[in-house]
């Protein structure tokens, strides 16, 4: 099997559809059909290698190349390639982007192609996320579970804070009810050793921050909005930033950054999705709220004692989403039969267990989940908090809408100014909502 990594999406932009033509399925000189599978995660790509080797052994005449494109360039180049009538034969897609491809007829209808029997073996929440009018538009590959707190146990011990205290804490717009902020203040230490609750605390010279508050959508914005009883969108995909409870959640996050200084300045985190993760791995952030997709990164990168605990609650409890990722079939593929065979394989327990077996991600094929649990148990890592947080509650709605990416281009600069404090929260959220909803 050939395993290709595209190191810079700029190449795709410069060459236009030429790259797209190279990545579509072709018959090799030996008569084999070569399919390309596009994704953005290096860790899962490595796990896929074993699965693809097994697929090729069982399907002589079909070769598969993995096309790993960095996240920052992934969707721009994908849109250009698929829109031109080319593109990879199969590709990962997320909930925020899938609507455009469904509306434009770019995806293979999985309900018609693979049938209800196959669908019954997949995580229900992911099936529901990628279905419209009873039709499923991709094969579920990953499910994130819920969010959890990754904690630097060494920093917690130094500050006299326990992981259990953090998971038992509650945040609130009402300071009298807020038990999370005092813990984060104890965990935020300046260069002179003063914590953020001290009158001598120097916010301009912070050594370690307590928390990763930032404009990150899945694990920060949505969690705080939903745990306060707010909304992010309505059923039609219109943004609802001005919902009263949503405004309160954003105000709380902005205050963590700019008033209490328990999180890094937004100038560092805006547009840099990996910043707080990397700072956590370097021992500069005590509590990192994130999903299962960062578990392998933390396990390989952290050189301190760490653990996982449930996230804190808000006024409406512990709100978190549980989004998934699908692998979609490109309707442009010149080899639909071979494409279908690979989709079937990736949706089977045998094909998906490779993902879980190395702990790279949680398989959305239900019978492959055991391999994931077994891997992390063998690493002495308890993954329970990612899943116990979802027990007895309905996960919050992941972002939806065919126009979301275009909306995000319109509102993100405004929202960035809200997080830096350049624009007041209420004013900025109104501007952001208006800009997003003006996108047709």
UniProtKB/TrEMBL annotation:
Keyword Transport: yes
Main location: other
Name of this protein: Sugar ABC transporter substrate-binding protein
Coiled-coil stretches: none
Subcellular location: Cell envelope
CDD domains given in the database record: PBP2_TMBP_like
InterPro entries on file: Bact_solute-bd_prot1 (IPR050490), SBP (IPR006059)
Signal sequence range: 1-20
UniProt record similarity statement: Belongs to the bacterial solute-binding protein 1 family.
Keywords: Signal, Transport
């Amino acid at each position: 099997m050939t395993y290709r990594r595209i190191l810079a999406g700029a190449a795709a932009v410069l060459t236009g559809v030429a790259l797209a033509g190279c990545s579509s399925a072709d018959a090799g000189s030996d008569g084999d059909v070569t399919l390309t599978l596009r994704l953005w995660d290096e860790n899962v790509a490595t796990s896929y290698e074993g699965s693809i080797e097994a697929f090729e052994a069982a399907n002589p005449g079909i070769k598969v190349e993995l096309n790993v494109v960095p996240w920052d360039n992934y969707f721009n180049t994908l849109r250009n390639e698929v829109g031109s009538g080319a593109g990879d034969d199969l590709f990962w897609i997320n909930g925020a982007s899938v609507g455009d491809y469904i509306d434009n007829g770019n995806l293979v209808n999985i309900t018609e192609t693979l049938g209800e029997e196959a669908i019954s073996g997949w995580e229900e929440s992911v099936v529901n996320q990628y279905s419209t009018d009873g039709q499923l538009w991709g094969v579920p590959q990953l499910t994130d579970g819920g969010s959890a707190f990754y904690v630097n146990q060494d920093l917690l011990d130094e500050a006299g804070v326990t992981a259990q205290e953090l998971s038992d804490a509650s945040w609130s717009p009402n300071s009298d009810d807020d038990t999370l902020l005092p813990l984060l203040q104890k965990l935020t230490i300046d260069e002179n050793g003063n914590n953020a609750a001290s009158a001598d605390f120097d916010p301009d010279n912070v050594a370690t921050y307590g928390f990763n508050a930032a404009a990150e959508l899945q694990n920060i914005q949505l969690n705080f909005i939903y745990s306060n009883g707010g909304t992010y969108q309505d059923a039609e995909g219109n943004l609802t930033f001005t919902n009263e409870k949503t405004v309160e959640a954003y105000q709380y996050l902005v205050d963590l950054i700019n008033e209490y200084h328990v999180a890094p300045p937004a100038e560092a985190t805006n547009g840099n999705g990996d910043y707080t993760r990397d700072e956590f791995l370097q021992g500069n952030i005590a509590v990192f709220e994130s999903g299962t997709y960062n578990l392998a990164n933390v396990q390989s990168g952290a050189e301190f004692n760490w653990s996982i605990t449930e996230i804190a609650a808000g006024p409406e409890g512990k709100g978190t989403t549980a989004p998934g990722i699908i692998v979609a079939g490109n309707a442009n593929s010149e080899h639909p039969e071979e494409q279908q065979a690979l989709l079937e394989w990736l949706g089977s327990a045998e094909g998906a267990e490779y993902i879980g077996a190395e702990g790279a991600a949680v398989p959305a094929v239900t019978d492959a989940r055991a391999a994931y649990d077994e891997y992390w148990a063998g690493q002495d890592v308890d993954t329970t908090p990612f899943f116990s947080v979802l027990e007895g509650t309905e996960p919050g709605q992941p972002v939806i809408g065919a126009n979301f990416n275009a909306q995000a281009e319109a509102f993100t600069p405004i929202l960035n100014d809200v997080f830096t404090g350049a624009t007041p929260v209420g004013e900025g959220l109104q501007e952001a909502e208006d800009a997003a909803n003006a996108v047709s």
